[in-house]
Amino acid sequence: MAHLLGHPGCMASLQADLRDLQGAITDVTSRTGPARFPSWKFPNKVSCELDLLALLERYSHAEGDPEFSQHAHVVLLELVIDRLLLLLQSFTGYAENLLSERTVPPAEAVGPCMSAGLTVRRYWHSMLRLGACYQQLQTEKKTCRKDIAALRSTPEAERIAKECLKDCLPSASEPSTPPSAAQPRPACSPVERSRSISTQTAEPPAPCDGCASAQAGLQESKAKTSHTSANTSTRCWSRSTL
Question: What is the dihedral of CA 228, 229, 234, 235, to 10 degrees?
């Protein structure tokens, strides 16, 4: 590994990794706010306030100066550790915001300086709490589904559903009555009842067009038959008279 220190290809790869890590940190902090902790590489500075672009420009490969290139290579490796720890601290802040149901994270002062091991343990603890809350929500969701299914299968629920359907969708077989029909009418006498019954029975329903034409044809044929029989009877009477 020592012979690769100061290698331009390795240093360029580390600089690309640092840019990607800084982009991820920017995305997380835009949702959770900046994680304000001392920098692992520069303990006298706040980690989220480091000017990474300036550091990348400063610690790059120097042609003709292998000693500085090796030193810059080591600094880039240390900056990778610094950005990874800041990313874990940002993840921890996001998980804690979800657990506390805070939509806007509160403004925090600079936290204590944490080692890499302490940062990882804190992050893993927040992940365990978040996973426990998720499992609890899943269990409650399954229980609610079972309760709803059991409620739907009861006869009482079916009866209520049928009554609701009757109220919302009236049966097509039931004739619709006008509002005036629902009002009570005065009781009528037996004479009026008989008159109404006779009037209803005396007025047959109007025949259709086919029935009317057939009845007209029958009446016309009857008239012709009666006329012919009348003429025949007249002739017979006249003959008998003669």
Answer: 70
- Nearest alpha carbon to residue 89 among 68, 110, 104: 110
* Residue range 145-167, pLDDT digits in tens: 777 777 666 666 666 666 766 66
DSSP label at residue 38: B
Do residues 10 and 65 make contact, with C-beta atoms less than 8 angstroms apart?
no
pTM over 0.70: no
Six token digits for residue 178: 């006008």
Q: Do residues 47 and 40 touch, judged by C-beta distance below 8 A? A: yes
Q: Which residue has the tokens 């559903």?
A: 161
Q: Note the pLDDT tens digit of each residue in 122-151.
A: 999 999 998 998 888 888 888 887 777 776
Contact of 95 with 126, CB cutoff 8 Å:
yes
Please tell me the distance from the alpha carbon of residue 241 to that of residue 238, in angstroms, as a whole number: 5
